[in-house]
Specification:
Helix content: 40-55%
Order of helices and strands: HEEEEEHHHEHEHEHEHE
Radius of gyration: 19 Å
Strand content: 5-15%
Number of strands: 10
Structural class: alpha+beta
Strand order of the largest sheet: 6-9-7-8-10
Shape: elongated
Distance between the termini: 44 Å
Largest sheet: 5 strands, mixed
Amino acid sequence: MTKSDLLPEVEGRKKNKGRSDPERRCIASGELFPQSKLLKFVISPDGFVVPDHSGKLPGRGIWLSPSRDMLEKACKKNLFARSAKAQVKVSEDLVDQLEAQLTKRCLDALGLAKRAGHLVAGFEKTRAWLSDQKVGLLVQAADAAEDGRGKVRALAKAVNPDLPIDESFTAQQLGQALGRESWVHIALRPGGIADTFVADAARLSAVRGIAGQPAKK
């Protein structure tokens, strides 16, 4: 058996044994990337290609760079079937499904952080947490006035130049995630929920085809 005969997942695991973020091979570009930077898909029992954002679905993972170009290439050139070595079905709206699911994961993470007491919302509370250096992620509404966002962004960068800042969602989306009409400024404590949000928001930005990362440093 040659190196090229190895399954992408196995090859990546062998090259990265002992690392916390093993590499996987993108089926569209053929390049190796850290697993956390890729989208994972599996084949459902009825033969459909389905996203596996949580990494908990059964079946061998199929890995793809999180860009609309790579997704469209994989669909058009039947790369999912080639990787699975089986006939598969790809929904025509797979890219749109993926965008919707990643959006939901991000917003659900905010709700989870609120219930866990790891989140505050509003200008004053967000500013207070930033001043006390309690923040691992700043989230601001994309459609809010730049003046208000700019003030909070400047404070965040003064406190921690490397603080991730996300401005991917509208005030209404942020509000609905937290049980009210709208929110503009949200701060999350450092930790797993904030880290998960940043990773999913980066994937979402790439799928949307937006230049740059939503979680800016």
